[in-house]
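Weekly modeling sync, notes
Attendees: S.R. (lead), two postdocs, one rotation student

Agenda item 3: backlog of single-chain predictions. S.R. asked that every request posted to the team notebook include the full sequence so nobody has to chase files. The rotation student volunteered to paste the first one in as an example of the format we agreed on. Action items at the bottom.

Example entry:
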Amino acid sequence: MFQKKKGGKPYLTLSNNLKIILKRKLKLKKVKIFLSLSDEREYSVAYVITQKIK
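Predicted structure, as returned to the notebook:
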């Protein structure tokens, strides 16, 4: 779920199902998640990149 902090910076909250997928199926214990949002009058786009941390 996308949300905004008080200053307007977006952040991402992971659902429990996604946490299970990351840990069990993809075997990722530590990840860094990047979120980019862009919008115009009629369109919006979001990019989410997940990086494995060793």
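Discussion: group reviewed the output briefly. The two ends are 26 Å apart (CA to CA).
Action items: rotation student to repeat for the remaining queue; S.R. to check formatting next week.
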